[in-house]
Amino acid sequence: MTQPAARPPAAITPVIYDGATVQDVANADCDWDHFDSASYFEHNYSTAREADIRIARIIARHFAETARLYPTGGRAIDVGAGANLYPALAMLPFAEDVHLSERAESNRLWLDAQIEQPAPSWTDFWRVISSGREPYQRVANFQQSLRRRAHVQAGDVFKLPTGVYNLGTMFFVAESITTMNKEFRRAINAFVGSLKVKAPFAAAFMKDSSGYRVGGRDYPACPVDESDIRRSFAEIAHDVKLDTIEDTEVRSGYAGMIVVTGRAGKKK
Ligand SMILES: C[S@@+](CC[C@H](N)C(=O)[O-])C[C@H]1O[C@@H](n2cnc3c(N)ncnc32)[C@H](O)[C@@H]1O
């Protein structure tokens, strides 16, 4: 999730000409390596807020339910993990190896440190995720399990391998790394394409975001809504379900968050 844009991005202000944006910001245009992980975490995840609690419950229920339909174990991936551990926590019981794939060096260092010593809010997220769900309750100690199973890797969503992961998550990445709709769609295709057919996944998106600031730096976003997202998954996934989560607590500059759960590949 993202911080509200206090003002239009400075270095990347879109040029509006006749009502159309003529200057796009591509993923490759941004300085991801200096993404301020501590500031992002502090703003978004240092306490478990209501909107994230609702999202965490949705994805934990999805993974717990689909575990009955799909072989567990093997590899999972969280694409663009950033300074967020709860998608990885939701996959923990279902994979031997959880790849936290990140383009930003700052975030990779932050993730390594958090795996060693998770901040207290992750315990709150774990309670939400595990409460009343048997597969999670079999995990005796989530911190230990995280240390054993989670591996931080340098990764680029546009260069993911095809058909290798047993489950996956991608939170606030496709629409929050570019202003370009074609890159947004490519990121979703690459994420779902990295999963094995029928693998369960969860993804989250900011709705109608116009960009965001993290620690004094501006980052681009591609404004998308439910119909853009539904269309993006239509041909590449099945059992797709969307939930829109209002977020009235501290965020502004966008219209809520959209959570997608589903399974990879078209239904035969
Ligand atoms: C808005 S943050 C979302 C972070 C986190 N997943 C969350 O749920 O809050 C976007 C993340 O995408 C990462 N990112 C940017 N470009 C990427 C790329 N090409 N491949 C993978 N991750 C990328 C950024 O470093 C950042 O961590």
Write structural notes for this entry:
- The structure is a single chain.
- The protein is α/β, with parallel strands linked by helices and 268 residues long.
- The chain contains nine helices and eleven strands.
- Strand 3, helix 3 and strand 4 form a beta-alpha-beta unit.
- Helix 2 packs across helix 5.
- The longest helix is centred in the N-terminal third of the chain and has 17 residues.
- The protein is globular and about 50 Å long.
- S-adenosylmethionine binds next to loops.
Give every kind of bound small molecule, once each: S-adenosylmethionine
Tell me the overall shape. globular
Low-confidence stretches: 2-20
Strand elements, count:
11
Number of domains: 1
Q: Would you state the CATH class?
A: Alpha Beta
Mean pLDDT: 90
The CATH level-2 architecture is identified as 3-Layer(aba) Sandwich
The strand order across the widest sheet is 5-4-3-6-7-11-10
Helix segment tally:
9
- Helix-strand makeup class: alpha/beta
Question: What fraction of residues sit in β-strands?
Answer: 15-25%
- Calculate Rg over CA atoms: 17 Å
Largest sheet: 7 strands, mixed
Q: What is the name of the CATH topology?
A: Rossmann fold
Order of helices and strands: EEHHEHEHHHHEEHEEEHEE
